[in-house]
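**User:** Hello, beginner here. Are you able to go through the protein record under this note? It all follows right here:
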Amino acid sequence: LFKVTGQKIKLPKNLGGILDRAGIFAHREFSMDVKANITLAKNRMRIRTTGISSWFEAETNMSYNGEPLFFTINPGFLKEICEKKSTCIIGENRILFEGENWKYIIALFSSREVA
């Protein structure tokens, strides 16, 4: 499960600020219920969240040259990961973040929402 081979990417430096804003618009009663939909496409990342009465969407440039990918994650949790590790490995069906004493895997899905 934790052996992921694929493209190593560096996450955008401004991702933490974007995730902060995304979390505000996606506010829920329980913080673990907040979800951000992340789409990776050629040289860009799209972050989208929806709340009870609002939504948020932002795009940022990044170095990515693979097929369009989609995953869902709690924005606060992704921000914490990014503060500890700014790179990850994108494999065939998952992303691996790996620190000194931890590993975190996110399932990937093909995205049709990227033009």
About this structure: The radius of gyration is 14 Å. Strands lie at 7-10, 36-41, 44-50, 55-61, 69-73, 87-90, 94-98, 103-107, 109-110. The CA atoms of residues 96 and 105 lie 5 Å apart. The helical segments are 15-25, 75-84.
